[in-house]
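Title: Prediction job returns without error message
Component: structure pipeline
Severity: low
Priority: P3
Assignee: unassigned

Description:
Job completed but the reporter wants confirmation the result is attached to the right record. Sequence as submitted:
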Amino acid sequence: NDAGGELFIGIKNNPREISGLEHDQLDTIENQISNIVNDQCAPTVLPEITFIKENGKHVIRVSFIKTNYASQLELQLELQQELQHELRHELEHESMYTQILLIVKEKTSSKKEISTALGQKSISSQLNKINNKLLDDYLIERTIPNKPSSSKQQYKITQRGIVFLQLLKNKKA
């Protein structure tokens, strides 16, 4: 179904009422949704996942935006041309460039969280350099774009980032 739509998690069907989700489950459920959508949907779609709190109860809204298969193919071709050097390099051996993308694909993360996931004791200059390159390539984006140095800054994958990973996966297969 490429028409788009919304899915609500934490709402009973009959009668239609908010049952709610436990606050400490929200991140786990978000990751599960992302993994299921990524593994089961072709072409790749990027749902918008929103947390809603209503009357003290937590609900997750998953919005699927209508996709255009032709524009998806155009984006893949555009990325292949623009980032052919990075694709070639990553096919030879996976570097921190891809590792960071995979980390933020699974979970929106701060630099400290990315650093920890990479097994680093602290945020390295190499991590900063590659993070900036991913931002410049529009493969990741800041969650607080107007405050790049905010202590609450996190990074998430973009549609281009998902397509880049899909291209890598397809070329490796």
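Comment from assignee: result matches the submitted record. The longest strand covers residues 57-64.
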